[in-house]
Amino acid sequence: MDTLRPFPTLPTTPREFGFYVDGKWQGGRPLFDRASPGHGVPVTRIPKCTTDDLNAAVTAARTAFEDRRWAGLSGAARASVLLRAAEILKRRRAEIAYWETLENGKPISQAMGEIDHSIACFEIGAGAARMLHGDSYNSLGDNLFGMVLREPIGVVGLITPWNFPFLILCERVPFILASGCTLVVKPSEVTSATTLLLAEVLEEAGLPAGVYNVVTGSGRTIGQALTEHPDVDMLSFTGSTAVGRSCVHAAADSNFKKLGLELGGKNPIIVFADADLDDAADAAAFGISFNTGQCCVSSSRLIVERSVAAKFEALVAAKMAKIRVGDPLDPNTQVGAITTTAQNDVILGYIAKGQAEGATLVTGGIVKDLGHGQYIEPTLFSGVTPNMSIATDEIFGPVLCSMPFDTIEEAIALANDTVYGLAASLWTKNIDKALTVTRRVRAGRFWVNCIMAGGPEMPLGGFKQSGWGREAGTYGVEEYTQIKSVHIETGKRDHWIA
Ligand code: NDP
Fold it and tell me: What is the pLDDT, as a whole number, of residue 279?
């Protein structure tokens, strides 16, 4: 597998990309210069597409769907394209991780891990393509036989965010392709490079032209037009709850396209006094610092049993102080740069608000000055109360808020005291507490004595305002299909008209 030797430096000039429609690279549009958030220098130049470009991409995806160049293949044939893509990704791992790090600011070692996870998504997607099947009813009487067919839903629009540009893409694309659908992707304008590189990978893997199309540009123009497009059958959106809401309106006002939404989170990590506190503290520090807390499943609310709260907060603060915040291209860095200046301002604003609201800053809360880029130290607040904005709002940064509890009922109530329901982590050695809390906390992903564990076999998605539907695994493929009930008469019709 490709490795990072010699270790990369910044590109001497920004790399210019085209956009990809109907199997062809296209250019001639104005370019958007993206600067590395870790270094402050331009690294890529991305086309600002027009809505005509988007319409052409949807037409290409529609034609490719209707002529069955992809949907008409066997699951085995689709699987072999996905497996070839996985092999190409192994070869291009370091290169894709490099561009991901430059545009996003995440540590290069983490980006490499995300490419490995993406490869696994393609492998699981290949298996799912072969296993996709419907159902039959042999219980309708001797004269009637029932079949339930799963058919690809059609043309899918995919809007992805800037926090995990390649990983989130690959948690969806192999499963969309496994189902037989075609798609048009709109990545975030600030992190488009690796979505475009995936087009090269899929083309080399033998994916027919028109099946995977990428149109770049801003969310407000291209993204919005994709949500409103009358010829898109389904839209998968990952990002803010506010834009998720606008997707629902756009779907209702256009063609009632089916929606898959993965939105915000304000995820609890619940720690009982009987837990292995050292393991739990490591998980708490990791859960809020990974990807600089710009992660929809970040555990941002620490709900800890009062009898150990002070000791536990000290353990977490000590772990946080040891985290290596630094240049994303340094292989030893654990926490890199904040991806956008807007997000940097949001996080610093919440750190100021937390102090103004009366919470105690235990550690962090400061900008780390490397002489380039934007970096924030992992931050812990104690003495947080449920009504404070740092306890209710998705900060999307490395800011952990600690709240104590006395009883299991109180822990469950605090965990559920949010409009979101994306993920939760629980730490206890007591099986009764573990099962009670697991069953009563409303979250789409639940980790007991672990955090952010799992693979693309397991479905992803949220309860409440964290979204609709599930991505990845067999559940993920099924989201991109629709059900047709087929009834076959096997005997002589019992006539209605004598
Ligand atoms: P957005 O929801 O604005 O961006 C997510 C994606 O949607 C991007 O591709 C963006 O494109 C696109 N987009 C933006 N506006 C529209 C629109 N009107 N119609 C269709 N697509 C659109 O998130 P932000 O970047 O503004 O981040 C704000 C907050 O959202 C964060 O602080 C965080 O709380 C949350 N968030 C959650 C994520 C998650 O994984 N659940 C991921 C990202 C953000 P472009 O970037 O080109 O404008």
Answer: 98
CA angle 243, 248, 254 (to 5 degrees): 115
The set of catalytic residues is: 262, 296
Interval 65-77: pLDDT, tens: 999 999 999 999 9
Q: Which of the 8 DSSP states describes residue 138?
A: -
DSSP 3-state assignment of 322? helix
Is there an atom of ligand 1 within 6 Å of 240 CB? yes
Using a pLDDT cut of 70, give the percent of the chain over it: 99
Q: Phi then psi for 360, rounded to 5 degrees? A: -100, 125
Q: Distance of CA 158 to CAs 56, 461, 494, Å?
A: 16, 15, 48
- Does residue 60's CB lie within 6 angstroms of at least one atom of ligand 1? no
Residue 246 Cβ inside 6 Å of ligand 1? The answer reads yes
* Predicted model pTM: 0.97
Rounded distance from Cα 315 to ligand 1 centre (Å) = 34
Give the burial class of 467: count Cβ atoms within 10 A of its Cβ; 0-12 exposed, 13-18 middle, 19 or more buried: buried
What one-character-per-residue DSSP string does 83-100 give? HHHHHHHHHTHHHHHHHH
Query: What are 296-334's pLDDT values in tens digits?
Result: 999 999 999 999 999 999 999 999 999 999 999 999 999
Q: What are the backbone dihedrals phi and psi of residue 91, each rounded to the nearest 5 degrees, phi first?
A: -70, -35
- Ligand 1 atom 30: residue of nearest CA: 240
How are beta strands 360-363 and 379-382 bridged, if at all?
Answer: antiparallel
Any atom of ligand 1 within 6 Å of the Cβ of 262 = yes
Instruction: Please indicate whether residue 171, judged by its CB atom, sits closer than 6 Å to ligand 1.
Output: no
236, 243, 396, best to mutate for ligand 1 pocket (most atoms within 8 Å of CB): 243
Return the SS3 of 449: coil
How far is ligand 1, taken at its centre, from the CA of residue 219, in Å? Answer: 8
CB 304 within 8 A of CB 314: no
Question: pLDDT, tens digit, for every residue of 277-294?
Answer: 999 999 999 999 999 999
Burial degree of 361 (CB within 10 A; 0-12, 13-18, 19+): middle
Whole-angstrom distance, CA of residue 127 vs CA of residue 456: 12
